[in-house]
Structures are given as structure tokens and as C-alpha cells.
Amino acid sequence: MKSDYIIEVNHVSKQFEDGQYALRDVSLKVKKGEFVTILGPSGCGKTTLLRCIAGFQVASEGDILLNGEDVTEMPPHLRPVNTVFQKYALFPHLNVYENVAFGLTLKHVEKSEVERRVKRALKMVAMSDYEFRHVDSLSGGQQQRVAIARAIINEPEVLLLDEPLAALDLKMRKDMQLELKEMHKKLGITFIYVTHDQEEALTLSDRIVVMREGKIQQIGTPTDIYNEPQNCFVADFIGESNILSGRMIRDRRVRFCDKEFDCIDEGFGENTAVDVVIRPEDIYIWRKGDGITQPEDVDPDDRVPKGNFTKWYGVVDSCIFKGVHYEMTIKTDNGFEFMVQDYHEFLPGTEVGMLVKPEDIQIMKKEHYIFNYFEGEVLKNGKVRFLEADWEVSEAQIAPFHAGDKVQVRVAFRDIDLQDHESEGVLSGEVHFILYKGNHYNLTIRTDEGYDMYVYTNDIWDDGDRVGIVIPKDSIILDQPEKQPEK
């Protein structure tokens, strides 16, 4: 039966010999002719997914279909795909022509046909005048073009590209992005592209697959991914964002930054904890004291929008020129911090007003609320064991329970203390993810035993920092195991 998709990845997981998972239940469908980019930070599983599609690695679970045919265990050379690697993998003893022709030569294709297809491929990548140049005399961008020509000459149905532009300088990388997009249009074949560069993904793709820790976080068009992120990781990873904790008052009304704002989102319920995303370019800014409809330094045709918008005020803390716009950090009167991008310069110390239109406020379901929840057991010595450690608990909390009772342990994000020296903690771990929420940092700490906990802090930590973990006994709350999480 012919499939509507050229590639189908169905519930694929990949576990290595050391027990670590690179992919966890990944599913993806790609239509013929699409340009799909797999995007994510280092170690998220994007290259492993590409290698499973190419056949260089075999999935531990699930299956992969090409044109409806199961190729999960088919060797790479039998699959109708070609791969372009980051390191090009050109043969240094062969010239450009010989490198491009190599695959056809192995297949014993007639010489005249080889010559025709080599010239066509080189023309496609703008390398027609370099046929007899040695590859080691070429620039990085030229070598990449040769690698792409060598891949497309075999007329694959799918071209897989594993961070092919990572080794190029910024200008050459941008030039090659445009060339790749044009090449995709000319060839009409399916491109699967792996990168950690968000701008590259937004520039090239028909659809983007955002990955984190072996799982797909969101699949969508570049516009959807940027304007409608489904969680804080996507919002933070794709472009610059102001991400704040908020509360949905009712449909089309949200509270954050200690103020209420109109928005356009519905269906989150009433009095529900949410996360709020505002892009820096969507905040209107003017010098405090100027008329709202026409600030002094804004052209008459570029006015702050009229309307009964919620306004808030602050002071410019920093202002950096970014070439196209100024990027400013604004500290508000009530202790929040916003990043704002504007074409006009507002110097540090300037008192400013701000507003945002309802349609530019993006509401997301909250992934984590205000408490960590762990499974625990009451011990004979009056302590509670959870996270593979024994913890002291207040008498009031432990009184209703007996030794051996299973309990649900609840600890507020704000009540976990992180120590500079890991030896000072009951547990030790490292900072695994950092998200700034306007007036505090939201950290994910992964313990050495592999558990994740969430911490609110005003202290500044770096990703990967080693920490000791302390939970004061009065901050540990014990509940019956079936108790529902609080929001």
C-alpha cells in the first residue's frame, strides 16, 4: 500500500549498551519534497535520529518506513537516501570530478552518463569550473558544495544533512543557507536537516522538529514554532523571549507582572497557573512623560498603538546596539525584568513606559507548578526516605504516619537550598536547565541518582554547575500517595 509519507518514524527508541537512551518514543512523518529540520541542543538525539533513518544505527524499538516499506534493519547502501556529513568526508587523493563521480563509478555506470550527471550536479552547486581542482585546495564552503554534489548525483529520494554548515564562518554559512534552500527547490527531493542553530532552522525549513533529551517537544512550521511555542523549552530555545509565571483569570484575561492584561487565548480555565511568553520585539516602549500616541523619538508613521492597553513602567538598565535594532533590559517598578528590542535607542537610566498588544501575549500550559512531588517511605527512626536519601521531617508532618507507610512527598520549588560545595548537601547533582522568569530563575537540578527537581532561586548559576542539595525539614510536606498535585 502506497503511503502519503516518504518517511515514517513510528515510536522509535534507541538505547545504547551503557543503558542510556538517545531516543525515547519518537514519531515523525515527512511528506515527499519537504524540507524538515531536526533542531535541538547538543546531546538531544537529533543526529541519532538521522543516523537511524540513514541506517547507520538500528532502532532498539519501533520501526522506520521509507515509501511505506519497513527499512528499520535495512543496511544503508540499500536505502534510497544519501547523507552529507559535517566533516564532508571527501577523498583527498581525488579531484572534484572524481569525488563527485565516485558513487556512479562503483555502480559501473557508463562513462558518458557519469560525465553528464557530474556536470549537472556541479552546475547545481555552482562548482562547474572546479572539476579538476584538488579538494584540499578548496575553501570550506566549496568543499561542502562538492559533498552535496556527490550526494545528489545518485538521485536519492531523501537527502540527509548532518550539521553540514557547522564548520563554516558566519558569512559563508548564511550564503550556503540561501544556496541550500534554492537547491532544494530545484531538486524537488526531500531534505532532512540536522542543526543546533535556531536561525538556520527558521530560515531553511518547511517544518521544524524541536528535540530535547531524546524526545520531540514540538513539530510545526517556523512561524508556528516561533509564535506559538508549546512549552518553555521551545520558547526559550527558539529566539529571545520574556517568559513569566502567570495566572489565567478567565478566557482572554491573564495576570502576570502583578497586573492584568487582555489576551486572545481561551480554554485554559479560570484561575489557572500558566506560563506567559512575550517576544522582545513585541513590546512597545516610550519615554515616560511623552504622549503615548507619539513619543518624541518615534516617527509619526511609527506610533505606539492607540487603545486601552495595560501599561507598565520601568527604567532602562542596559542598551546594546545589535546592528538592526537596540536590545534593552528594562527593570520595572515592581521588581521584574524585561528584554525589549526597538529601532530607537533608550539610554540606561531613562524612565520608560511599556505595553503589549493582546495578540502578542502567548499563553502556555504550565509544565511544572510550585511543588516537587516524590514517592517516599516513612522510616523507623522518624525520617522519610525519598530520592534515595534519608531526610529529617518535622514532627507535625510525620505524626499521622507509621514506619513503612508509603507517602507522597511535597517540596516547594522555592524551599530547596543549593550549596556551592556539593559535599554540603544531603544530595549532590548539577544544574541541568536554566530559565529566567522575569524576577527569578527556574532551575532543573538533576541529582547524581538521575532524579530531576525544580528550584526557584534569585542566585545566578551556570548550566552544568555542581551543587549540594539541602531541603529544610520544615519544608517537607507529607501527603497520602493519592493526593493530587496543587497548582
In short:
This protein has 487 residues and is α+β, with helices and mostly antiparallel strands.
What structural class do the secondary elements suggest? alpha+beta
- Low-confidence segments: 291-301
- Tell me about the largest β-sheet: 6 strands, mixed
> In which order are the strands of the major sheet placed?
6-7-8-3-9-10
Describe this structure in words.
The protein has 487 residues and is α+β, with helices and mostly antiparallel strands. It contains nine helices and 30 strands. It has helices at 46-54, 96-106, 111-124, 140-152, 170-187, 198-204, 222-227, 232-237, 395-398; strands at 7-15, 21-30, 35-39, 61-66, 69-70, 81-84, 158-162, 190-195, 207-212, 215-220, 242-250, 253-256, 259-262, 272-278, 284-287, 311-321, 326-332, 337-342, 351-355, 362-365, 371-378, 384-386, 389-391, 406-412, 417-419, 427-436, 441-447, 452-457, 466-470, 477-479. A six-stranded mixed β-sheet has the order 6-7-8-3-9-10, with helices on both faces. β11 and β12 form a beta hairpin. α2 (96-106) packs across α3, α2 packs parallel to α4 and α3 packs across α4 (140-152). The longest helix has 18 residues, at 170-187. The two termini are 48 Å apart. Mean pLDDT is 89; it is low at 291-301.
Keywords:
6-stranded mixed β-sheet, 18% helix, 9 helices, 487 residues, 36% strand, 5-stranded antiparallel β-sheet, alpha+beta
Structural topology:
Elements: E1 7-15, E2 21-30, E3 35-39, H1 46-54, E4 61-66, E5 69-70, E6 81-84, H2 96-106, H3 111-124, H4 140-152, E7 158-162, H5 170-187, E8 190-195, H6 198-204, E9 207-212, E10 215-220, H7 222-227, H8 232-237, E11 242-250, E12 253-256, E13 259-262, E14 272-278, E15 284-287, E16 311-321, E17 326-332, E18 337-342, E19 351-355, E20 362-365, E21 371-378, E22 384-386, E23 389-391, H9 395-398, E24 406-412, E25 417-419, E26 427-436, E27 441-447, E28 452-457, E29 466-470, E30 477-479
Parallel strand pairs: 3-8, 3-9, 6-7, 7-8
Antiparallel strand pairs: 1-2, 1-4, 4-5, 9-10, 11-12, 11-14, 12-13, 14-20, 15-19, 16-17, 16-19, 17-18, 21-22, 21-24, 22-23, 24-30, 25-29, 26-27, 26-29, 27-28
Helix pairs in contact: 2-3, 2-4, 3-4
